[in-house]
Amino acid sequence: MAVALSSPQPAASRPTGTLTAPFPPPLCAHCQSPVLESPIPHPETEDAAAHPPVFCCNGCRFVFELIHAQGLQRFYQIRDAPLPPVSSRVFQRRNFDWLPPLLLASKGSVRLEIQGLSCLACVWLIEKQFLAQPGALSIRVDPLAATAHLTVIPEVFDSVHFASALQNLGYLLGPVSASTPASPNRSLVLRLGVCAALAMNAMLFSVPFYGGLSESDPYAPLFAKISFLCGSLSLLTGATLFIQRAWGALRMGVLHVDLPISLGLLAAYAGSLYAWLHHQRSAIYFDFVSMFTFLMLLGRWIRQTAIDQNRKRLLQTPLAVLQPDAQQTYSLPQGHAVPVRSLLLEGSANLAMEWINGEPDAKVVHAGCLLPSGALNLGPGPLPLRAEESWKDSLLCQLLHLPQASPDRDPRSERFILVYLVSVISLALIGFLAWKLHGAPLDSALQVLLSVLVVSCPCASGVALPLATELATAHLRHHGVFVRNASLWSRLRALRRIAFDKTGTLTTDTPPLANPEALRSLSPDTRSILAHLLSRSLHPTATSLREHLPPPTHPASPPLPQPRETPGQGIALEDPSTGELWRIGRPDWALLGHPVPPDSTHSTVFSRNGELLAAFRFEESLREDAPREIDALQRQGLRIQILSGDPSDRVPQIATRLALPADAALSGLSPLQKAQWLTAHHAQTDTLMVGDGANDSLAFEASLCCGTPAVDRGLLEHKADFFYLGRGLSGVRLLLETARAKEHVTRAVLVFTTLYNVSAVALSLAGKMHPLLAAILMPLSSLVSIGLVLLLQRPRRPLPPS
Known about the structure:
Layout: E1 9-10, E2 40-41, E3 54-55, H1 58-69, H2 74-78, H3 99-105, E4 109-115, H4 120-131, E5 136-142, E6 147-152, H5 159-168, E7 172-175, H6 186-210, H7 220-251, H8 258-277, H9 286-311, E8 329-332, E9 342-344, E10 348-352, H10 354-357, E11 362-366, E12 370-371, E13 376-377, E14 383-387, H11 395-400, H12 411-437, H13 442-455, H14 459-478, E15 481-483, H15 488-491, E16 497-500, H16 502-506, H17 516-520, H18 524-534, H19 540-546, E17 564-566, E18 570-574, E19 581-585, H20 587-590, E20 604-608, E21 611-616, E22 619-620, H21 626-635, E23 639-643, H22 650-657, E24 665-666, H23 671-680, H24 683-686, E25 687-690, H25 697-701, E26 705-708, E27 722-724, H26 730-765, H27 771-792
Parallel strand pairs: 1-22, 16-23, 16-25, 23-24, 25-26, 26-27
Antiparallel strand pairs: 2-3, 4-6, 4-7, 5-6, 8-14, 9-12, 9-14, 10-11, 10-13, 15-27, 17-18, 18-19, 19-20, 20-21
């Protein structure tokens, strides 16, 4: 849509949505998320006396209506997992022109990534959409890998229509990147399965010895060899994972939690091997090695699975852009970012600038003007450009750069590990020397040394703490918050400040329609024509209008021609069957030169043959819970900062409405200036950066941790430690409060683990530890610690208004 669709104006201060009903709050009819903000009623039942369905966002309402219009209500009966809020991503048009050539090149058989899968009901819904398309042959959806393998007749199958139909339901298709795994966690799952079998066999062939099997029994050597074989294979199959990670961390100067696990496993295996060769049955711990390896792998799998479930919500393919050489002439397709500073050779261009500098207003430029790197082409077609700089010198190249992963440092954990290792090793050596100095045989002294090293392994916390992470992650996932980086939990402990971008983060990502009654006053047929006019536009005001229009059901008969967009003016459509001219855009252009009503001067006007049908007003608006959430975060002792690229006076106005001091809001910052401000204020030690545009990319790298509400742009979601959905800011506070609850559980587990280790080490130093007792204490301690997690980390109610 042309920029003539009026620029959003700052909204007047208005009361935010509050929760007046007692708990429990109403649930969204589509995603079942608690509706803590102002509920969005079903448009056809909002005046009904009965309980109408309510929705947490217009996206959920849109998908709910579309599913029912297509007769696919069974989706809600077979879903077996909560859905994330749809938000506004179903209204944001995407370019799927890459899909037909891909199908032709692959001869109709292609594997694609799918973003938005939640459960098997999603698979069923996608299959229904696919089989309804002409030329569709077969589809196999892998919910674990979040991919789909399509087999189609490329000349018949309308792949763009299929991809658009899925987007209307909240799913996005993308090409499979080289880094997309065929099956997540495959190696870890294989290790876990093998070690589970080895642990069961090791215990099976050790039990006879605990029951009194004599060494002279003819089966004793065979059972001992099988136990030795199971322990050895467990060490090679599973324990090497921890040993390699611990060694790699040590080489980089990091004390990792895998270090005490590795030392315990190596000590248990080496001591058991020595005892087996010297026929000392009381010091053989091969079954302990197998079982401990299995439990540690189980804990690692639980933690990794929680993160992978969140990562599969996103397309793994990062943003793809052209990379022209300097002075090269190229064509920029609709919806793509200008890769380098370029000269517009002819015509006019409609550009979105908020992605790079935070300005919410689109702008029109004409032939001979320079287009900045990172601006988005909102126009109806490709732009002829000439590159004025090389790719490596461009701003977008810097913003798209994904820094090489570095080891996560948690000083508190490293200090704990250091103290733990020094204490355990010292106690083991003291016990060995004490027994030897008191005249005990070497075998008995070695037994004490070995038992201290074995029983002090962190087996309880190795399973319980990953479980606590999984429960916290699942709780957040249910409420639309997704953690992508497991190290985020430890970094949140040091959080003291939150820096927010403005446009799309504190404010809504599309300018809200200020007068939806103007849209409701139109007849259903007129609204259908308006929907067709806006169907291919990328302009944010077109996205906002689509949020209030009914979902597409059946195409018009006879089919309407494609709309024509005039940059700087608007969109037009002439109906060949009636000769009527429909326009939406600038008032003077849409009304064909007729006088513009005074109240429509700053509006986007919809007309028929120059007759005014509706005037739509748009405004830049705070997310409706922003004042409440910012106030709640401040009362928790967090400092709030706004870092915006928007050079207008809207930034101080937003700060005033959020009750922030003037020096807490900075405007007109370039991407580099944002990062420099954070670096100057030591953000890498205490600041969370929350943003949604490419102009926040460098700031993400300069902060302690980072999050985004934008999950469909192919950049920040691959840098962010977490992302959140929905139309509010409550996801940030929910993450922090969940992290505090998880920290409380972690401390409880560590206290229990400490008491267990003190008791177990005391028994070992007293010479009372035995492989049978160790085999009982280890799983028992794990069960108790798991029970603590389940008891203390029960699902919490959603956040009430503060």
